[in-house]
Structures are given as structure tokens and as C-alpha cells.
Amino acid sequence: MKEKNALNLTPTPLLLSTGKELGKMLIKDEWGFSRLMDLWKKGGRDEKLIVIFALRELLKKDYESSKSFVINVVDDIPDWEVCDQLAVRVVASLAVKNRDDMFFLMHNWVKSENKWARRLAAATLTAYIRKRKEDSGICLQLLDEMMGEEDKDVKKAIGWALREITKKDPEAVFKITKKDPEAVFKFLQKWAKQDKNARSIIRDGMKKLPKERQDEIKSLW
């Protein structure tokens, strides 16, 4: 998700390359995860991103340890950038490997008092739906639990997820255009009727719907 970065940060592609190589080195190292945990706890932004990119390599070989790593750091996420990279690079891949397992965790995260845990759940869907476009229904079920969200950082991730589901949803059956997903439209239509506090999420989430459908939703306000 594009948001304004602070100045003078190490370029993310460089960290990606470093993390990827570190992950490959640690695949055969039984202490790999503990070393990454030390780096995560002691490091700042750059170190955490390197850990995330290394973890993306390690999860290909060790699902359970990678999942445990995420569980242990979810309450130690410092900002939106680390949150989104962890979601897109790691948690989404874990969910592709074991949907039920990871969605159980994500349903717990949306109830957390930690906003970054809640954002992690929503941001994960943006990458997961690209791999599992047939799962738009269960993704919307998770987001349904989040529509009462009040934190702006989490709201942005919910809107982001809705836009991605709109683009990937296979239920494109409306007459207006083949790119008009029924599921997302009905979801947003329901919330537009139900909760005026969800309007900012709806405005953001409906941007990939055809203008005609957006106008229908707005008419409910």
C-alpha cells in the first residue's frame, strides 16, 4: 500500500535482496528462526524488513515455524510499512498454504486492541485474493467483522482489501460490465444501509466498482 515514507530510508529493494539471501542461507540452519527473532527484537525498520524478506524464503520449507514466528511478533509491529510487508510477503503466503489455519488467526487479530494486528489481517487479504480469487466470500466474511473500525490506519487497509477483491472477484455477472463483481457491491450496499460510520471505508473500498454502482451506493446515504 502506498503511503508517504520518511526521508533517508534504505531502499526497500536493497532490503528485499538482503533478506532473500539471508533466508536462503538460513534454510539449512536449525537456529535460523531464533537468529531472525534476535534480529527482529534488536533491530529497527531496516532489520525488521530484512527479517520479513528472509522469512518469505524460510516459509517455503517450514510452515509451522514461520507461523509461530508471526504469532510471536504480531504485537511488536511498529508501523504500517512493517505491518503491510509482513502481511503481503509472509502471512498471505502462509494463508495460501493453510487457509483455515491462518484465517482462524486472522479472525482473532481483528478483535485485538492492537491496531497493527487488525491492519495485518486486512492487509493480508490484498495479497491472498490475488492467489485465491475464488475465496472472495471468506475474505468478505473477515472484513464484515471489521466494518465498525474507527482507526484510520486500519480503515485504509480495509478499503485496500475491498478494492483488490473487486478486481479479483470471479462473480462478475452484472450486465453493466464484466468487471462488476456482485459480491463486493452487495457487501458495500448492505453496509451503506446499515452503518453510517462505515462510510469512509465504503468510499475507499468502492473505487474499483463501475460509476453506476458507486452512485447506487451513494444514493443510500
TrEMBL record:
It comes from the Archaea. SUPFAM superfamilies: ARM repeat. This is DNA alkylation repair protein. It holds the Pfam family DNA_alkylation. InterPro entries: ARM-type_fold, DNA_alkylation. It comes from Candidatus Methanodesulfokora washburnensis. Gene3D superfamilies: 1.25.10.90. PANTHER family: ARMADILLO-TYPE FOLD (PTHR34070), DNA ALKYLATION REPAIR PROTEIN (PTHR34070:SF1).
